[in-house]
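Slide 14.
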Amino acid sequence: MKRLNQLEDTFDAQKSALQSVESKIMALVGTDWESVICRDEEEETLRLLLFERKSLLDRMFLATDEECQRMVWQNQRLHELTIRVKNKMADICEELATKPKDDFVDDYEVRGTVCFDFGDLDDFYPLPGAECYGSNFPLMMSAIYMLDEKQQTVEYHCHHTDDRETILEDSLDDDQSWAHEIPVSSNFEGTYIWHTTVDFCRDMYYAVLDVLQMKTFWSEVVVQYQNFGRTQSP
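Slide 15: predicted structure.
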């Protein structure tokens, strides 16, 4: 019983700290998730607060059955999105390889991205029981999205090759799950965690609980043509 009380005290203390941090965030960005804004001179403070929030939420993670099931589902969704992006990249590279270079194209690069797209609450997928953490998830996720809309992406690159297998293979995903790179890794030892999932959970301001509530993802594949501007000697 003493051990249980200590855990409850720890969670309650972390919850109190989390709500204090989120109050400071709201003082910077406002209280309406649809119109968050941050002045340039306060951006670094906001980043530090969002990182503190992420750290607290990841330490508080309870790993309920619903949360673990959502992780399995979200992890698979992100993997399937990644495969779709890479297939499109491979299609484009194969097509480009059949075309002769013109007087502009010296080289090209094909880039694919996957990112969370937060335009309204339909893009947010509430997690049953998440209210126990005391976080204002939509507002906080909107603040993160506003702060780093262009950076909160996972990128894949293909540089001048038409080898489909090379494009589709990913040395980052092999026989070793990336679960150990997630802050709450001990709860997913039996699940193969793909690297795309880790990118969202580890390398951005989103806590694991935020990632589990992302509903809409946006993907893009673009070609960047390059010309080096060389001219013949006079």
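Speaker note: The chain has one domain: 2-226.
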